[in-house]
Amino acid sequence: MLIPVIGLEIHLQLKTKSKMFCACPAHDVGASPNTNVCAICLGNPGTLPVPNEQAIRFGTMMGLALNCTIAAHSKFDRKNYFYPDLPKAYQISQYDLPIATNGYLEVEIPDSDRPLVRFGITRAHLEEDAAKNTHGVEGKTLVDYNRGGTPLIEIVTEPDFKNAKEAKAFLQELQRIARYLDISNADMEKGNMRCDANISMREVDADGQIIGARFNPKTEVKNMNSFRHVERALEFEIKRQTKLWEDGTPVTVSTTRGWNDVKGITEAQRSKEDAADYRYFPEPDIPPLNLTALAEELKLHMPELPAARRARFVEEYGLKPLDAAQMCDDPAVADFAEHTFSELQEWLGSQEGDLDWETEKPKMARLVSGWLLSKLGGLMMERSIDIRICKITPENFAEFITLIATTKLNGTAGLKVLNAMLDAGASPTHLMEDLKLGTMEDAGALADIIDRALASNPEEVLRYKAGEEKLLPFFVGLIMKETQGTADPGVTRNMLLVKLKS
Ligand code: ADP
Ligand code: ZN
Ligand code: MG
Q: Which family does it belong to (predicted)?
């Protein structure tokens, strides 16, 4: 039997103010091409690179998050290659002494026979990005050196992945970690997270024991700009390589292929350079780094990471694991939820009677999940807004949840209030009153409306009384319409049942 062997190499653009070795702005997206450049990042002779302290801190934080050993002795090296995106004709990178080595990341794999997998991290190192080439402009290639010299961290994994889904889940978790650490936007579509996937096949027997070579020559797949691309490209490569094995012509030399998302295939590129081709040698202008003290300092200030936060959300707020995962996907949404829950805890504490947090927890978890993830999430998606620019504060959102929890607001009216909150950013209680959307608490008025509705639909009443009970929702609907959604559906139903019996 053949099984895939997959290892990933990921580049993350670090969110520093300045470039890796000079003072030029690093991520000035609006800047005209070739304006954020200087003698250092253009590689003029006689200039001296100075490592960016923030990039080193960010890189070390990622190393710690990936459970790596942080180097007591690390250095930079020159990786030589000749290409227009590299004005010095070498890239300052790290070869044999990277900042972080020998770590791991545990990732949950949904719907899998390996639900939690520990993937080994070989190493993580710092380097500078190359310039950006734009091919095909009037048959020419244009080069923008603004990107040249911006800081990157490259993370290399062990070949521990068994399928495309595992690779995708790992990349998504890595993205979350980068965002929680606030060291990179880690957006694959925007190119600030890039992934190369290495893949080969291995022969195993029925017990999963390796037959033949432990590792076979691999194919490195490049040019994938989304998680979906990575997944599709790997699935394609697994099929392609399996077929080659079955035809008796397995891959015999390591090569590089590019993913063509339009055609849905990988295409041969060049054959792969090995390290010798790059003639690595130590960067003589930068002294070695001892990161031990920095790592000790950073350990004290590491933020809570996504996995820990998800587990705590389940434990502390009684959320379902899937809801907790969705909330913790974006740290800003998680902060919003956390703030909402603490407001709700305070509110429950201030209520008279026997409402307490532990008993109300499941209900609150259900309401916050439903209203935050599906309803508010949906409304924000429709308007293409993000929680960061949403006008609803967690205080107002918590107040909204209390109105729902105490049935002062029903679901239909709730959605209208939420919409108005998004527009106005005002308190839900005020909006509810302004819009006259509070639940009809006047039972007498509701009874009158029901009487009138029944009187004007005599035929349906007769059919109901003759046993057609499925007409009940029709009557409830009439009342909801008549009261513009302000009647409580439960109360309406009960009143209708009584009136239709008589
Ligand atoms: P290279 O010499 O091409 O740089 P490395 O040994 O540095 O190769 O590994 C680069 C990446 O490829 C790592 O993520 C590693 O896990 C993965 N890898 C190495 N060998 C294989 C293989 N035979 N099949 C699949 N992936 C591999
Ligand atoms: Zn510069
Ligand atoms: Mg390598």
A: Belongs to the GatB/GatE family. GatB subfamily.
pLDDT digits (tens, 9 = 90+) for 311-327: 999 999 999 999 999 99
- CA angle (153 as vertex; 188, 84 as ends), nearest 5: 80
Nearest ligand atom owner, CA of 94: 3
What count of Cα atoms within 13 Å lies in the side-chain half-sphere of residue 410? 17
Beta-bridged to residue 202, according to DSSP, are: 3
Taking all residues of the chain, what is their mean pLDDT, rounded to a whole number?
Answer: 93
Which of 198, 215, 278 for a ligand 1 pocket mutation test, highest count of atoms within 8 Å of Cβ?
198
- For every residue of 237-296, DSSP letters joined together read HHHHHHHHHHTT----S-EEEEEETTTTEEEEEEEPP-GGGGT-EE-TTS--B--HHHHH
The mean pLDDT value for 135-163 works out to 94
Q: What's the CA gap between 129 and 145, in Å, rounded?
A: 10
Measure the N-to-C terminal CA separation of the chain; round to a whole number of Å. 73
Per the CB < 8 A criterion, the answer to whether 324 and 314 are in contact is yes
Dist. CA 489 → ligand 1 center (Å)? 61
In Å, how far from its chain's centre is CA 60? 21
Neighbouring-strand partners of residue 153: 12, 126
Q: Which amino acid is at 313?
A: F
Specify whether the CB–CB gap between 309 and 179 falls below 8 A.
no
Distance CA 80, CA 78 (A): 6
Residue spans of alpha helices (H) in 369-434: 377-382, 394-405, 411-424, 428-434
Contact between 21 and 214 under an 8 Å Cβ cutoff? The reply is no
Of the listed ligands, the closest to the CA of 21 is 2
CB 241 within 8 A of CB 251: yes
Could you give the C-alpha distances from 110 to 105, 113, 222, 266, in angstroms and in order?
Answer: 16, 9, 25, 26
Going by alpha carbons, the residue nearest to atom 2 of ligand 1 is: 274
Token pair listed for 428: 């839900």
Query: Which pTM was predicted?
Result: 0.87
Answer whether residue 156 shows pLDDT above 90.
Answer: yes
Nearest CA to ligand 1 atom 13: 7
pLDDT in tens, 379-391: 999 999 999 999 9
Going along the chain from its start, the domains and CATH numbers come out as 8-199+276-299 (no CATH), 306-434 (no CATH), 443-501 (1.10.10.410)
The DSSP call for residue 277 is G
Question: Which band of pLDDT confidence, cut at 50, 70 and 90, is reported for residue 431?
Answer: confident
- Helix, strand, coil % in the chain, rounded to nearest 5: 40, 20, 40
Q: Which helix (H) or strand (E) holds 232?
A: helix 227-246
The Cα 262–Cα 175 span in angstroms is 25
Q: φ, ψ for residue 98 (rounded to 5)?
A: -70, 165
